[in-house]
Amino acid sequence: MGRLSIILWIFILLGGLPLFAGAERSVLFLGDSLTAGLGVQAEETYPQLLGAMLSQDGITDVRIVNGSISGSTSASALARLQWYRGKLHPSVLFLALGANDGLRGLTIDEMEKNLAEVIAAAQAQGMTVILGGMELPPNYGDDFTDAFRKVYRDLAARYALELIPFLLEGVGGVAAFNQADGIHPNAEGHRRIALHVYPFLKQHLMEPHATRKK
Predict the structure, then answer these.
(1) Domain containing 110: what range?
(2) Of 34, 63, 92, 136, which alpha carbon lies 20 to 30 A from 55's?
């Protein structure tokens, strides 16, 4: 073995160069506290549960990356995507933002603009985008809640996205599946979200085009 080969092999062993650089796909979750898992253990969050479910089904080349931040709004999505894009080259973006926009009364137009920017950027980089829709409590009024809900449907149609109409389906508003604040899912709530989301995610990972992008 020549000197150059020895140096390269040491470099690999030290972690400077991945030995199987293209063997793993990444799914990036960009969300707020609902996805970050405020109030539960990291392994109890629905993104981590989804990773375990994929492994159990023999899909072992997928890395789950939870890039969610509690309190975040749609305004931070594009910058966060760009940061992770440079580190991970995600194959799939799971976008689950907007709840804080609605709860804080931010404008619907601004939320739609922010989400549209990150979706367009992800697709331009070859990522599949799954959009996790949100709902607002009825006390915000029919006009606002209807307009809020419509943003997700319009974006899904405009960008040909897979839409999960309500990420918290069967969990939101159900006391047994939420923490004392009535907003954030408990461990059982996260388990139910994972069961709800899993068919959507698995479908995209099983499709031939869902390979890691360079």
Answers:
(1) 24-206
(2) 34
- Number of helices and strands (H, E) in the chain? 8, 5
Position 6 in a domain: no
Assigned domain for 64 exists: yes
| 9: pLDDT strictly greater than 70 | no
Q: Which whole number is the average pLDDT over 37-55?
A: 98
55 is a catalytic site residue: no
- Which of the residues 26, 91, 184, 196 is marked catalytic? 184
How many domains are there within the chain? Answer: 1
pLDDT of 16 higher than 80: no
Clarify whether 181 is annotated catalytic: yes
| pLDDT at residue 102 tops 90 | no
Rounded Cα distance, 214 and 206, in Å: 19
Catalytic residue among 5, 143, 181, 209: 181
List Cα–Cα distances, 75 to 8, 149, 163, 197, 213, in angstroms.
Answer: 43, 18, 20, 24, 25
pTM for this structure? Answer: 0.85
Catalytic residue among 33, 68, 74, 91: 33
Q: Is 33 a catalytic residue?
A: yes
pLDDT at 123: 97
